[in-house]
Amino acid sequence: MDDAAGNQVPLAEFLRVEHLGIAVHSLDAAEPMYTRLLGVPPYKRETVESEGVVTSFFRVGPNKIELLESLNSEGPIAKFLTQRGEGLHHVAYAVEDIRASMARLRDQGFQLLSEEPKAGADHQWVCFLHPRSAGGLLVELCQPRQDSGSSSVA
Ligand code: ZN
Q1: Which of 32, 64, 126, 145 could form a disulfide with 120 if both were Cys (CB 3.0 to 4.6 A apart)?
Q2: Which domains does the chain have, with CATH numbers?
Q3: Helix/strand/coil (H, E, C) string of 110-128?
Q4: 89 CA to centre of ligand 1 in angstroms
């Protein structure tokens, strides 16, 4: 795509890194360290039953850090912790139009983990891409849910 001056304009589809997701064994144990590290306490905890996780969110400037604790011993976070221990679990990108991004990425051979956007934590529609197709790291797409009032990182 070219602008009026003939310059290449990238598709404004991926907007920014929305948050980093970090797997932890216990939010109660991890939150104090992250509070000391980041200099701010978490601003919310939220359970996402469909994903089997409890999340805790910190603001870092315009970005967010999401800690994830598993609600059970069989979910993806529990498996990740068993295999790799605590640490970076996924990178989430804010996108303009999650369905358009999903269609493009599917066409380009990326493996989507759901056919439809799912209701994720912190007022987002989300879709994950399998790490196998995305350079070894789980990727999450996020688009704010309009139905939920303020979802911005104020
Ligand atoms: Zn996330």
Answers
A1: 126
A2: 14-144 (3.10.180.10)
A3: CCECCCCCEEECCCEEEEE
A4: 9
Q: pLDDT band at residue 150, thresholds of 50, 70 and 90?
A: very low
107-116: pLDDT as tens digits: 999 999 999 9
Neighbouring CB atoms inside 10 A of 91's CB total: 15
C-alpha of residue 19 to centroid of ligand 1, in Å: 6
pLDDT in tens, 81-98: 999 999 999 999 999 999
CA–centroid distance, residue 7 to ligand 1 (Å): 34
Tokens of 57: 């969110």
For residues 23 and 89, the answer to whether their CB atoms sit within 8 Å is yes
Which pLDDT score, from 0 to 100, does residue 92 have?
A: 97
Q: Please work out, in degrees rounded to the nearest 5, the angle formed at the alpha carbon of residue 106 by the alpha carbons of 144 and 55.
A: 40
Instruction: Measure 127 CA to ligand 1 centroid, in angstroms.
Output: 10
Ligand 1 center–CA 59 separation, angstroms: 13
- 4 pLDDT above the threshold of 80: no
